[in-house]
Each structure stands twice: as C-alpha cells, then as structure tokens.
TrEMBL record, chains A, B:
Domain DNA methylase N-4/N-6, first and last residues per copy: 33-254
Species annotation: Acetobacter aceti NBRC 14818
Entry keyword annotation includes RNA-binding: no
Name of this chain's protein: Methyltransferase
Reactions catalysed, as given in the entry: a 2'-deoxyadenosine in DNA + S-adenosyl-L-methionine = an N(6)-methyl-2'-deoxyadenosine in DNA + S-adenosyl-L-homocysteine + H(+)
A Gene Ontology molecular function term of the record: N-methyltransferase activity
Enzyme type, top EC level: transferase
PROSITE patterns for the chain: N6_MTASE (PS00092)
Amino acid sequence: MSGAIKNTSDLPLDKILCGECVDVMRSLPTASVDCIFADPPYNLQLRGELRRPDDSVVDGVDDDWDKFSDLETYDRFTREWLSEARRLLHKDGTIWVIGSYHNIFRLGAILQDLGFWILNDIVWRKSNPMPNFRGRRFTNAHETMIWAARSQDSKYRFNYQAMKALNDDVQMRSDWYLPLCTGNERLRNEHGLKLHPTQKPESLLHRVLLASTAENDVILDPFTGTGTTAAMAKRLRRHFVGIERHPDYAKAAAERVEREEALPQDAVATTPMKREAPRVPFGSLVERNFITAGTVVYDRQRRVSATVTPDGTLVSGTQRGSIHKLGALLTNAPSCNGWTFWHFERDDTLVPLDALRSESLAADAEALTLASAEVPIAAQ
Amino acid sequence: MSGAIKNTSDLPLDKILCGECVDVMRSLPTASVDCIFADPPYNLQLRGELRRPDDSVVDGVDDDWDKFSDLETYDRFTREWLSEARRLLHKDGTIWVIGSYHNIFRLGAILQDLGFWILNDIVWRKSNPMPNFRGRRFTNAHETMIWAARSQDSKYRFNYQAMKALNDDVQMRSDWYLPLCTGNERLRNEHGLKLHPTQKPESLLHRVLLASTAENDVILDPFTGTGTTAAMAKRLRRHFVGIERHPDYAKAAAERVEREEALPQDAVATTPMKREAPRVPFGSLVERNFITAGTVVYDRQRRVSATVTPDGTLVSGTQRGSIHKLGALLTNAPSCNGWTFWHFERDDTLVPLDALRSESLAADAEALTLASAEVPIAAQ
DNA sequence: CTTTATACTGAATCTGCTT
DNA sequence: TAAGCAGATTCAGTATAAA
C-alpha cells in the first residue's frame, strides 16, 4: 500500500508455516503484512462437550464458574493472537475475523479493546445452511465477519468501484449471500469424507481479497486450515503467509496452493478507483485544446454560467476561481466537484467537463498503446 | 410460561414508567417478566457532519443519551442494566437486545459474562438502508439482535410452527429482511420531523413477540423510546412494562399505545411472507467460478469481444463496464441485456451467459436439497 | 385522474494530499 | 500539525408538485 512503511523483505512469502499460531507470529517482523484473514476456533459448545482453543476437552462440569473460566481461557487466547496480529499489520492494514454467535462477540470486543477500528460487520448469509432439526431455534443461516483497520487513523484500502461492479453497479452491502463450500471444492480424505470441518468457500475469500487488498499485497492467515485464503491469494496474484498447527492440514493446504493457478496479470485488474486515476488539472485540458479559452460553461439547469480562461480558472462576473471553487461559490455550497457540476455545449446538448477528462485519459492510453506496440522493434 | 414461578402480581402492567432505566428496574420484583426487548444506546461516536453527494446534511444521531466518554463507561452502563434485566426475568425467560457493530460486541460479551445463554443472533437486513455516501466502506445494511435465554437450562419459549408458517412453511432463518420505519408509521412532531431518531419498525417487534412470547405474557422494554414494543405487545394481546427516561418520549409512547387496538383473540397472526426472488449479479458467477476471469466473451455473431475480469466487469480495449453497459457501448445501443448478448465458448459452441445464471440457481437448489438430506448424518 | 419530475430522508463511527 | 483545497460520493422509498 502506498506510503506506508512495510517490512516484507524478511517474511517467508507464499508458504504455509506449520506451528502454533502465536509462536509463529512472534517470529515474524513488525508491520510486515497488508491484510489478515483469521478464522479462529469457535469455542463451540456442542453435545455437552466443551473444547478449549487447543482442542483439549474440558471436563463436563456444568456450573457457572466453569463456564466463566472457559470464556476467560478463550479470551486470553484471543487477546494473545490478536495482539500479535496488530503488531504484524502495518499502520494502514486491515484485518478480517470470522465467527458465529459463540465467539464473535468475544472477538469483536477484544478487537475494540486492543485499538482496532471496526469498519464493517459483514454477514455471510448461507444459501444452503444446515437446518435446525430440533425446531428449538431459528435456522442458524449466517456467520459474521468483522472488518477492522489497525487504528482509527489508518488509511485503509477499500476497492469501492470493484465491489460496486461486482454487485451490478449498486454499492456492495454488508450482507453477502454465498453458498457453503461443497462438491469438488471441498477437500476430502481417502475415504471421501471432508478433510476439515469448517472449510470456507472460495467465493467468500475472493470477495474479501478483492475488496481490501491490491495486487502483490501480503495477506496473513494465522489459522490456515485447508488454505482457502492462500489459494485465493495465489489466484488473484497476491502473496500470502499461512500458519497452521496441524501437520495434515498444513500439508493439504500446501498441496492445494500448488495446484492453484494464478490468473494472468491482465485478468486480475479490476475496476480502478477514481482516486487512483492520474490526476488531470483542468488547466491542462485548456492547454491541450480539449476545451477553448472563452467557452461558456453552465450547471446542468443553466442557472449559473462562467467563462473558461487560458489558465484554467473560471470567471463569472467579478468572481474567479478553480472549477471547484467557483461552483461552490455560486451555489453557496461548502464544496463542489467542478468536473461534474460544469457543462459545455456540444451538438446542442450539455456535456459535463468530466467527459473531457475521460477523453484526454483515453487519448493518453491510446498513445501509450501505440508507443508500446512499437517497443519490441525499438528494443530489439 | 408453563411451570415457572412468576411474580407478575406486583408489576405495574401496561404502563410506560418515566425514569432512569436502572433505577426503575430496581423497583420491580424479581423473576416477574417473561421476555425483555432492549434497544439501548449504540454509542455511535459520530464526529463531524456528514453530507450526501447532493450536499444535503444527514440528520444523524447526535443526542446526549448516545454519548459515552469511553468504552469502559459504556461497558459499566451495559453491565448494570443487563444485571437488573437478568434479575427481572424468570428462569425460563428470554431477552432480545439490538445493536450495530458499534456496541453489539460489547452487549454480546457481557450477556455471556453474566450467564445468559445465547440462542441465536438475528440479522435484520434493511431493504432500504442509508447508502455509504463517501464510498469508503460497505453499505451498513443491517443491525444485529441477540436472542438469549436467562441461563443454559432455561425451558424457553420458541413458537417454531408460527415462525415456519410465517415463512411459507420453511424454517425461519436467522436473517430477516424488513424495511425501515418510514411513512405514516413514523411518529412526527408538530413540524413534521421525526420525533425519535431510531424508531424501530413494527414488523420487527411483531416477529420478535410472535416468535418468543405467548398470549398474556409480560414483556419489559427498558428503553421504550416511542413505544414500538409496547404497541405491538398490545396489538398481539401481550402485556408490557415500558421504561423511558425522556418525558416527551414517554408521553408519545403512552399516547401511541392508547391509539393501538388489540387484535381479536381468535386472530392468529400468520401473515404469509413473500420469499425473495434471488437476483444473481454477474460478478457472483465469477467469484463462484462458474466462469473464470480472463475468459473471452463474444456477441452471437462474434462481431465484438471482451474479457471477463475478477470483479465481473468486461474489458474491451480501453473500455470497461458491466456486461450490460459494455454491450450497449460496443453496439452503440442505448441499452443491452448482457445476459443474452454475451456468449462464451463451451464445446466449440457459443453459450449465452444466461445459461450460467440458470446453472448457478440450479446448483443452489441442489445444494439445498443435499444439505437437508445430509442432516441426519451430520447430526450423529 | 394519471403520469412524470423533483425533493426529501434514513442508528453513519464516511477523504486525502500538499503546504 | 493544522490549514487549504482538489475532488469523489447515494439507494430505496415516500411525499409533493407539475404536467
């Protein structure tokens, strides 16, 4: 990510490291990763059997004190790995954690306690959840992800345009409807049984990575499991660091990543963010004669007008300023995007200045293409 | 509720009590209510004013009651009222709390700490949420409710059949799709402005009470506001105890309850809900790998072509857009149905994208069938 | 009366670079 | 570090006005 100080050089990139999550994290350099996706143990309390984060079974003592102590154990474990996670994230990095009602409230509260800044909670609505077969509750048809920046002032990445494009050109909402991981996507053992109980669907990670990372970014997954995060990172031409304590899972994940193919570079490009497009000063359009000095420009309703001057400012009566400033001034607004506010006449219709900007960028791209087509000859 | 010892005789039934929530709760008898619905302050921590792209100002929640100096203060407040809530619930009672990502993790963790037993987290998906105006996050399109029993061994009430009937005879899921409270339902002051910034929709409380209470049950609402809980309790022939700190709100809520009519006793509310028709964004087919990024697509006559990108847009030369937009662009048409316009190669023939849409819907239906068929095995 | 255009609104932690 | 300023940014709905 631009500007931020990163420490990737010492990272073991694109590997699944086998070991205890916190131990391995302690061995990695500070401020070295762009994004973290974590699918920690859920502390599920099913069939009377209580499991600690280390998978050991808690004695079935059914009193309040024991439940309390178990929550404490889970909290301590959570605070440990989340503290390390925060150290590994660089200042503009973000983290995703996923959980169910069993553990997500512990995760969220501790994230906040540690200084993470929650950006969204995302609901993964399952298209094919397991029904509630005792009929004693609502069908538990979703899981929750928390997306948080390292701190309140992080300049985090959010690929807004890509998410909007992914959702038929309306803003992507906080509720995502995706199927469970089933069929061929599900890793199975030699008996055809699922290898891992909670393998996440590739579609989920695809969207997570597309939303919050850039090409070549480094994503850490402290609970790699079957390696969905790593595989999607490779597919989308990102880098990953995976940690998995169970050797069988670590092996399966590594083999899966091996099988995964990276998409061709030109296929991972998504709709660019406008902010990242090259900045075009309006004055340069006048210089390059995309619009002539003296042209009269109007707002869409032709309520106000102004004249273009050779240095790219607009003049209206005694008032003068940039396209943005004069627009704000004439409408008594605190601010104004002059590119979309001002229009000029072309073929009897009003065209926004923004069209000229697009045309100039297209012309530049065209020129670039022509130039690079010539490169092989020139370079040889 | 059957069997449980209740103490309703000393309760001030069907009244809105004006006073501080915890103070009033302390004056009520132990184990006296069947159900609690609580909509506490969210502690939103809004900073500056927010403007829409048209420069209008968003009327946010800037009331003093939503301001807490820090998380610790909010936690202390939460622990206080939840402790009283637990005392007031009889042993088989349940509680609902609603919140957003700002406070729901604090609420959930403290509920668990106090010994409540979480039954479900319910996602209220808003059909018409406020968009994200700066394009810096996902549209915050939901709020979360936690439904919890007083303790793990509570014999709580869940009206399974009523919920199933309400949902076209399939189990009610944990994600509910309901509109905001607007129009005539919204209480307004003499200037026509909203009386309360966070009035909840009646449909939400209707479902909550129908799911978890019986006729003549007593429901406590410690943060009554405009009295949606009380009004729905009266409509559904339940009893309520409301607590509200602000005299204006307490008065408005009491008047609202007065206007509300109880349904006739034999009117069993099982209004069938329409199920949502699944909309398939093209991007989701890329995510789910029904079609791969990098695939080249053509019109039927192969006159134009484009490449699929990971966010579901198509790229052709320097032009990029949704399947619909790019189809229109390349054919100079005002609009275009990209689903039928674009084709990809499969077995040497051109297949329209629409086929993939059908296939994804069929796959979802298939997975649904398999999932429910597998349940007995998974349950073992 | 019908249709179309315009205005308004909702629990929101809502910018980022340069000087 | 604070100020200045370029410029990016909205969906579903209801209510009212205009045609």
